[in-house]
Amino acid sequence: MARAHVALQEADVLIEQRHFNGAMNRVYYAAFYAARAALATRRLDSSRHSGVIALFQEHFVRTGIVPTDAARALPRAFEKRQTSDYGDFSEPSSDEVVSLRDQVHAFIRSCEAAIGCR
Fold it and tell me: 57: exposed, middle or buried (C-beta count within 10 Å: 0-12, 13-18, 19+)?
């Protein structure tokens, strides 16, 4: 879970410096690392980002361990990161990045609660 927190801190620095594409990338990776940490407690992983998202949905969301509202941040962040990283003329707004950052922070807290770490 430490990598998730570091990525979120990196996002905060990039937001402060108004580097919103880079911040969106780090926000997504914060969520991704939290999901992988949760999956690791069940000895689950995937070599693909979409696989990590699917496994997390199957083992933590559909089972009710992580609330659906919090879990929506993971696929949302994935989509936003894809657009931000690979869209030629894409630049997320400050509000968009900060809003998603807050959602991902809540997602990380939900993952920590699910696996009993804080």
Answer: middle
Total domain count, the chain: 1
Smallest Cα–Cα separation from 71: which of 41, 43, 42, 113?
Answer: 113
Report how far apart, in Å, the C-alpha atoms of 83 and of each of 27, 32, 45, 89, 93 are.
13, 16, 24, 9, 13
Q: What is the domain range of residue 44?
A: 2-115
Q: What is the pLDDT of residues 20-32, one digit of tens each?
A: 999 999 999 999 9
Collapsing DSSP to helix, strand or coil, 117 comes out as coil
Q: Which residue has the tokens 């657009």?
A: 83
Q: Is 79 exposed, middle or buried (0-12, 13-18, 19+ CB in 10 A)?
A: exposed
Q: What is the CATH number of the domain that holds 110?
A: 1.20.120.330
User: What is the rounded distance in angstroms from the CA atom of residue 103 to the CA atom of residue 97?
Assistant: 10
